[in-house]
Structure formats: structure tokens, C-alpha cells
Design brief:
Structural class: mainly alpha
Number of helices: 2
Helix content: 40-55%
Shape: elongated
Strand content: under 5%
Number of strands: 0
């Protein structure tokens, strides 16, 4: 025969709860008087200046990224200002030279654009990893 659970809880159930006391200072009005700054034990009495703001960090890496981008922009502009070496050619030679020059400048432009994007991604990741926030 299986044992049946009792119809009522055992004596002493639920256990008696001990009254809890709030931590000291709770439920009391706030202290009147000037605020105190600083760690406990070193608090100054009376009004005083607020804590000093931390010194502003230099943003050297941000300037490095800016200079690298300006250099790449100058290189991109310089690609289109490369002088033509098609002087003195006529007819089919001139058109072939101009076509080759255009193709070469396009390859150089997109190659430099790819390198620029790659360098910017690398510098951006380094910037995000090394900042202090």
C-alpha cells in the first residue's frame, strides 16, 4: 500500500520569520548642511570645488587617420593629372595610346581605391580596439 501524504502540514510549518531591521540610516531624513566630496574619511567640510575633471586625452591616432586619408585623396587626384605620353603619335597609334592610357589610369585608380579602403578598415579597427571607452 502506498503511503498517502498528510492532510495538513507538519507542526512548525511554515517556519517563523525573524523580523528584519533596515540598515542604519534608512528611513531617516537626509542630513542638512553642505555636501561633502571625496572618499569616506577624507571628505572636506563645507563647500568646495567639485572634483577635477580628468585631463583631456590627446587624439594622436585620429590625426594619423586624417593625414592618411588626405594623402590617399592627393594620390587619387594625381592619377588623373599624369601627363600623357602620346605626343607625336597620329592615327591608329594615337587612339591606341589614348585607350591604353585610359585603361591604365582606370586600373591604377581602382587599385588605389581598394588599398585606400583596406587601410581605412584596418586603421578603423585599430582605433576602435585601442580607445578607452
Amino acid at each position: 500500500m502506498a503511503q498517502q501524504p498528510p492532510n495538513r502540514p507538519p507542526e512548525g510549518w511554515p517556519p517563523q520569520q525573524q523580523p528584519t531591521q533596515p540598515p542604519p540610516g534608512w528611513g531617516q531624513p537626509p542630513q542638512q548642511g553642505p555636501p561633502q566630496w571625496g572618499p569616506p574619511g577624507q571628505q572636506s567640510q563645507g563647500w568646495g570645488p567639485p572634483p577635477q575633471r580628468p585631463r583631456r586625452r590627446s587624439r594622436v591616432f585620429m590625426w594619423v587617420i586624417l593625414v592618411v586619408n588626405i594623402l590617399f585623396l592627393i594620390l587619387m587626384i594625381a592619377i588623373f593629372n599624369i601627363s600623357s605620353s602620346c605626343a607625336g603619335k597620329v592615327g591608329d597609334e594615337l587612339s591606341a595610346c589614348q585607350a591604353g592610357e585610359g585603361i591604365g589610369k582606370g586600373i591604377l585608380f581602382f587599385g588605389l581605391l581598394f588599398v585606400w579602403a583596406l587601410v581605412d578598415v584596418i586603421l578603423g579597427v585599430i582605433f576602435l580596439v585601442t580607445r578607452r571607452n
